[in-house]
TrEMBL record:
GO terms of molecular function: (S)-2-hydroxy-acid oxidase activity
Protein EC: 1.1.3.15
Protein name: (S)-2-hydroxy-acid oxidase
Cross-referenced InterPro entries: Aldolase_TIM, FMN-dep_DH, FMN_HAD, FMN_hydac_DH_AS
Pfam family, one: FMN_dh
Localisation: Peroxisome
All copies of domain FMN hydroxy acid dehydrogenase, residue ranges: 1-169
SUPFAM superfamilies linked: FMN-linked oxidoreductases (SSF51395)
Top-tier EC class: oxidoreductase
Gene3D superfamilies named in the record: Aldolase class I
Keyword annotations of the record: Oxidoreductase, Peroxisome
Lineage: Eukaryota, Viridiplantae, Streptophyta, Embryophyta, Tracheophyta
GO cellular component: peroxisome
Cofactor(s) it depends on: FMN
Length: 169
């Protein structure tokens, strides 16, 4: 199983209650130390791979979330790392503000290099939609890719995952 970064259970809690082979899903934060800490916790709790989500460096324009002033559930894994307390929803979705403040929109192949330099766990890239990126991923030394369009939640007109599988394969 892949434990979502957004999980409302702590990495340690999941490890203690589940024998399954576990991968940990990561984002690259502006503060690289936050990502590095999460990786270290996943490693020391027996997670077997890091799944780096690469299709979400900026949040897609989720108009319903903005309209409804969406508030994401707490993220216990970020306690002590990033404070979400000052994110209000007065003029829109809390998620938009949270991603804008914390995640690095300049995510690039260099960050895959960086991630490789801080962990010996295999790395998978989640959010690959083209053969070109799959090839680059292999060249960058990742162990695998997850073909996904983030459930169509990121970009309008992103191709359906099923329609690009053959190309990537
Ligand atoms: C409420 C919700 C929360 C999600 N949170 C995350 C997340 O924290 N990390 C992530 O990589 N993807 C997240 N996703 C995207 C899903 O992991 C997945 O990519 C999406 O449901 C589409 O499935 P597919 O990738 O198998 O096509 C989320 C999706 C939803 C609906």
């Amino acid at each position: 199983m892949v434990l979502s970064f957004s999980s409302n259970c702590r990495i340690e809690e999941v490890a203690a209650s589940c024998d399954a082979i576990r991968f940990y899903q990561l984002y690259v934060f502006k503060k690289r130390a936050v990502s590095a800490t999460l990786v270290r916790r996943a490693e020391s709790n027996g997670f077997k791979a890091i799944v780096l989500t690469v299709d979400n460096p900026m949040l897609g324009r989720r108009e319903r979330d903005i309209r409804n002033k969406m508030v994401a559930p707490a993220k216990p894994n970020l306690e002590g790392l990033i404070s979400l307390e000052n994110l209000d929803t007065t003029d829109g979705s809390q998620l938009v503000k949270y991603v804008r403040d914390t995640m690095d929109p300049s995510l690039s192949w260099k960050d895959v290099e960086w991630l490789k330099s801080i962990t010996s766990l295999p790395i998978l890239l989640k959010g690959i939609l083209t053969a070109e990126d799959a090839r680059k991923a292999v060249e960058a030394g990742v162990a695998g890719v997850i073909v996904s369009n983030h459930g169509g939640r990121q970009l309008d007109y992103a191709p359906a995952t099923i329609s690009v599988l053959e190309e990537v394969y």
